[in-house]
Amino acid sequence: MVTTFPIPVSGSFSVATFLYRLGRFSFRRRRLVLMLWIAVIAAVGIGASSVSSSTSDSFTIPGTQSQEAIDLLGKEFPQASADGATARVVFEAPNGQSLTSGANKTEIESLVDDLGKSAQVSSVDDPYTSNAVSEDGTVAYAEVTYKVAEEDISDQAREDLDEIAAKGERAGLAVSMGGTAVEPEMGSSATELIGIAVAAVVLVITFGSMVAAGLPLLTGLFGVAAAVMGITIASSFIDLSSNTTTLALMLGLAVAIDYALFIVSRYRGELRNGHEPEEAVGRALGTAGSAVVFAGLTVVIALTGLSVVGIKVLTDIGLGAAFAVVIAVVIALTLLPAVLGFAGLRITKGKLKSSRMRAIESGERDAMGVRWAKFVLRNPLKIGGAAIAGLLLLAIPALSLQLGMPGDESAAPDSTQRIAYDTVTKGFGAGYNGPLTVVVDARDSDDPKAAADEAVSYLDGLPDVASVSPAVFNESDNVALISAVPGHSPASEETVDLVSEIRDQSAALQNDSGAELLVTGTTAINIDISDKLGDALIPYLSVVIGLAFILLMLVFRSILVPIKAALGFLLSVLATLGVVVAVFQWGWLADVFGVEETSPIVSILPTFMVGVVFGLAMDYQVFLVTRMREEYVHGAEPKEAVVAGFRHGARVVTAAAIIMISVFAGFIFSHEAVIKSMGLGLASAIFFDAFVVRMTIVPAVMALLGRSAWWLPGWLNRVLPNVDVEGEKLRHMLDEAPQGDRSPEPVPLGKR
Question: What's the pTM value of the predicted model, to 2 decimals?
């Protein structure tokens, strides 16, 4: 039997044509498509449940001073396992008791002995011989160094840590643990359910039908399940960041629902135009599906581009989120048409439609989006200017942006890492949570001991250094190791300045003695990573904006429209950074968002947010402005074209934005500071870009530009390929084809 498709007359391959055929195929073979997807979900589900996944939050940057020092220590102090994982086991005495004598001391010494015998452990510092007991005798900690890096820590090693902690608890001690060897507590959270619930309400209001509202949710959950289980399988073979799955879930759920929303909305529109369901599915996929492919492609390009920054954690979450977006696009183009086939015409029979909604669908009254567009067009300069001024005002706090890497201080309040951090702070001071490892490289010095003594004296004289340990030399007596405890917390601006000050002294020490001063350790590594990410932000932003300009020039065949879109995207990003800084760094509305302690902004947030928001901004831009261009090309006046664009796209874009905001905002309630800031940042960015930029500034600027908005030099018009994202050629070819070619009965492939 020959597989048949109704195809338009075309002399070259067209994405819209391919999607038209794919939509009709999936609709017609819906049972096969559904069974294939169920088989895929079952397969990855079995795979995910049968593997042992592990995550890692290690950060290394070749070429930085901290990494240079670690490499030197690995060569000169192999017994120190400078690149190995670490753990800090913190003991706290019961109320009214002390750790310096009696049964408590005996128990701790026994536990330290057990730590030394644990799997993969290289060394353990006894708190009673390393001066790690607080002055009041109530808090002590043991530093554990492992022979292997964080990502190579075995399950047995972590089980040994847990067993030692449990043994101490049974003896009446309060035991908590921090450090890179301690597995992050990925406690279950229902925050994503908040976004799903709001999305369901928005979809019901948008479509007025439970069937139509349920399809985007169903396919969205299918896509997220496939992506998350796929990442779980991958994590058993490669080391992934602990936040990879959460961020893939966050973004994958949002885009999956949105993409399905766009296609279902177009499908209902095609049904209202009198097309049979199978034809309507093909047309919906050939038009809205093309835009979904474009939008998904831009998100994927921006997210995979994060790998060029050179930070493993950023690469992990970028690739993980990009994988979730790819799955969302594939689901929308294959499973969704099949499910629409099962739904049939019931998708148009909504019993929840209000009289106002029916009047809008029948054309008896204007939708709110149309009324808003007309309002903006009456005062484009004032309204557009006010919107731009508002975003610039919100962006002011971004001028004081400080970047930092999350440590145990940003862990969930009830996690063992956070309890360990707070206990050490109470017993010793915040700086003891992040001691600096200072290396004196005196291999080219005539008097290494004098160089080390000079370094110790210098460090001891710094006002923000709480304590300095004596220098410890390697076997060759030409490289010394010094531990310096900052006076402030590891993530504080004072500690960042201290590391910079110590490094600045290296030149003076080298001139005096020929020795070089290097600073490393977790705190210094985090500072170097933050600096690298900060330096990469502007180049990455430039690349993304440049990419946006090129892509939009291909889509809209205009010079000024892409410039406006890129500048609007930049405004959204700057305003969002301002909001995040105001809340998490300045502490504004901290109680409202559950921010317990202000700190620098997570270094990966700005770069990751730029990648995500870029793709989503282009999504809204395409769905609003493409229809404006089509109306203008067909002879409409510029302002009429703007209104037409809002008439056909505003409702869907509004619903999509609200769903995106809801999904992202649900993560604001997470206990993890990283996830909380990601949730607020992405939710704010979508709000600013969708409602302020795309639905306010865009119509205002389009009205002010008039016909010049669509100007494109003739030579450039001839050079640029015609992308036809919205499937305009497909619609024309289908409308002009003989009625028999567009009947529900397909014609054999290749016949006309």
Answer: 0.78
